[in-house]
Amino acid sequence: MAILINAGITLGTFLLMECITWCTHKYVMHGFLWYLHKDHHQPHDGFFEKNDAFFLIFAVPSFLLMLTGAQAGFDFKFALGLGIMLYGMAYFLVHDIFIHQRFKLLRNANSWYARGLRKAHKVHHKHMGKYEGECFGMLFVPFQYFREAMKRSDNLFEKGR
Questions:
Q1: How far apart (Å, rounded) are the C-alpha atoms in residues 150 and 144?
Q2: pLDDT digits (tens, 9 = 90+) for 136-151
Q3: For the segment 28-84, what is each residue's pLDDT rounded down to a tens digit?
Q4: Which end of the chain has less Cβ packing within 10 Å, N or C?
Q5: Residue 21 near residue 57, CB atoms below 8 Å
Q6: Domain assignments of the chain as residue spans, ordered by start
């Protein structure tokens, strides 16, 4: 039973991280820590950005929760830390690899979900100012972008492409 509870905690934490990330992105990254996030919205040379420091903001608590949870017999703290870590891995895969192509992988993903995510992120990046923008989520973006992508899929299907 404890395994099911911890699995539920991990899944719930993963899902809650989307809300936390949305709030952090809108009010922290586009707020008082804009100086770290600003370079992510500007063209730049090089692989790393100051924005990459946000990885630590989530990785450190995740690591500490997993460590203390493991020391306590893999209790709920481990499940919380694991949920944060899994979300971080999903974020890296979707945001850094799929959307921004920091590694040249997943270039051909073309489902309605993938196209909706790409479009929402493109809309987010067209705003260059600190307090500007929309689409602050990563996995769950406004449904209008998915709806547009689904329409496009329907049109491609009807044309036999």
A1: 10
A2: 777 888 778 888 888 8
A3: 988 999 988 888 888 777 788 888 888 888 899 999 999 999 999 999 999 999 999
A4: N
A5: no
A6: 2-158
What is the token pair recorded at 43? Answer: 């063209």
- The amino acid sitting at 155 is N
Decide: 96 and 102 in contact? Cβ < 8 Å. Answer: yes
Q: Are the beta carbons of 91 and 85 closer than 8 angstroms?
A: no
Whole-model pTM? 0.82
Amino acid at the residue 26? K
In the numeric block, which tokens belong to residue 115?
């196209």
State which amino acid sits at residue 6: N
Residue 103 per-residue DSSP state: S
Residue-wise pLDDT tens digits, 106-147: 777 778 888 888 888 888 877 666 766 677 777 888 778 888
